[in-house]
Amino acid sequence: MPVKSRPYPHSQLQIGKVSEIHDSSVVSPEAYVLFYELDGSTFSRL
């Protein structure tokens, strides 16, 4: 998987949103992982 580390202006916003989604447990882990992938943030921990 190509990891792209680019300083997005809405990076923190997206991360916060994903955190809320994960906390609510509305979507599966794969979903918010894909969300990170789409955002372009460095999230290759899972």
From TrEMBL:
Swiss-Prot/TrEMBL keywords: Hydrolase
Keyword check for Hydrolase: yes
GO MF: hydrolase activity
Domain of life: Eukaryota
Name of the protein in question: Ubiquitin carboxyl-terminal hydrolase 2-like
Species per Swiss-Prot/TrEMBL record: Tropilaelaps mercedesae
